[in-house]
Amino acid sequence: MKLWSGRFDSDTDALVDELNASITFDERMYQEDIDGSIAHAGMLGAQGIIDPAEADKIIAALREIRQDIADGKLTFSIATEDIHMSVETELTARIGDAGKRLHTARSRNDQVALDFRMYLKNRIPQIRDKVLTLISVLHDRAGENLDTIMPAYTHLQRAQPTTFAHYMMAYANMLRRDVTRLEDCLERMDEMPLGSGACTGTTYPIDRRRVAGELGFARITENSLDGVSDRDYALELMSDLSILMMHLSRFSEELILWCSWEFRFVEMSDAYSTGSSIMPQKKNPDIAELVRGKTGRVYGSLMGLLTVMKALPLAYNKDMQEDKEQVFDAVDTVNNCLPVFTAMVQTMKVHPENMRKAAAQGFINATDCADYLVKKGMPFRDAYTIVGRLVNHCIATGQTLESLPLEDYRKMSEVFDRDVYQAIDLKTCVETRLVEGGPSEKSVKAQLESVAAFLKERGYHEA
Ligand code: ARG
């Protein structure tokens, strides 16, 4: 007999039971569901809504049920539909009538809203900590490569000289924003919806703030219709995870390029690469490719939930049961990708000589050559034109700006002198970019310090 079968004369169709049940995926919220019920029962007892002795009995039995589920001694089936009714049915089987009092002043609508928020509140710090670990790895890899010169690209064309350290810190900064986005999301999510009832609250003199305090919520939701209808906290998390995965996916794309023989800037350790079953020479960057691919899955969760929610009238609709699987999948995906991605970055070998070789080609010091003329008094536009012609000449004659003889420079402009070679030396080009945010050792060290302070504020002392 179903808990809700009061007005029904006959059973639901077996296929309906299968489609309707959510126990196969919402049982993973059993801890949150039982914690919520314990707080609710304690409050009902304290408020005299149920007998305090019965409340104690309920709480003791709920603790046992929680332990039995954790130990694998208790499993549920679709017969009891979802985690809420499964626990309640088990409770009543164990303690009889007292169990039947637990659902006083409560609906599954506010119960599921509570469980889902608590579940996500518990998961966000796990994801955040994994992002912090990745940031600390990037911080360290940057620290080892302060003078590893490489080209920076625009349009995937060699553009200007930078260092591997500067590059790693670019990703560290993106990930730092991902951390603060997750923290903001957690802060906004921190509202306790129980007491919203089915949709318009309850007539019982419940104490919502007591429940909120016991469950570690900062606030209570302020409108009962909103309290049971809102899923934007999950959408916000999906958005944050999508942005985080987008960052990891861009990074993956770069690493895949850099592993190719065309670049050879980095090499993945054997533990984070795979081979080919037919081509004996292959070492493939599968982990980076998987992370790039799984990004699509996380975007899918965001789009899926946005679409489920987009036309639902207030308050609860059964469509909303579709909120959980995709959100769980996105949380799992991010949780699984981060540690492997981090280990891959931590163990990959950097090839400074190949980066340097790429930096020596492609005229990435042309801007510096123009700036040389500007520092000697020439307007930038004129300097730009002259260096453009010089580059053209070098391409036609198979030379570089470094190898071009001084007399050729002077044919273009009398302003050029012997010190031009010093000015266009790649090391000079990097080290004179002292601007805040730039690639000079001094600038990158400041970036390292800032990120280290960020990590330390969050308990990451090793950085
Ligand atoms: N299993 C349901 C869900 O996940 C719980 C809420 C059911 N509420 C209801 N009125 N049928 O959304």
Features:
5% strand, 19 helices, binds arginine, mainly alpha, two-stranded parallel sheet, two-stranded antiparallel sheet, 463 residues
Secondary structure topology:
Blueprint: H1 14-20, H2 23-26, H3 30-46, H4 52-70, H5 83-95, H6 108-144, E1 149-154, E2 157-163, H7 164-189, E3 191-192, H8 208-214, E4 219-220, H9 224-229, H10 232-259, E5 266-267, H11 286-309, H12 323-347, E6 349-350, H13 352-360, H14 366-375, H15 380-397, H16 406-412, H17 420-423, H18 426-431, H19 441-457
Parallel strand pairs: 3-4
Antiparallel strand pairs: 1-2, 5-6
Helix pairs in contact: 3-4, 3-6, 3-8, 4-5, 6-7, 6-12, 6-19, 7-10, 7-19, 10-11, 10-12, 11-12, 14-15
Bound molecules: arginine.
Residues 22, 26, 82, 108-109, 112, 316, 318, 320-321 line the site of arginine (ARG).
Quote the average pLDDT: 96
Identify low-pLDDT runs.
Answer: none
Report the order of strands and helices.
Answer: HHHHHHEEHEHEHHEHHEHHHHHHH
Q: Number of helical segments?
A: 19
The count of β-strands is 6
Helix and strand content put the structural class at mainly alpha
Percent of residues in helical segments?
55-70%
What's the overall geometry?
Answer: elongated
- In spatial order, strands of the major sheet run 1-2
Strand content: under 5%
Largest sheet: 2 strands, antiparallel
How far the N terminus sits from the C terminus, by CA atoms, comes to 58 Å
Computed CA radius of gyration, to the nearest angstrom: 31 Å
What ions, cofactors and ligands are bound?
Answer: arginine
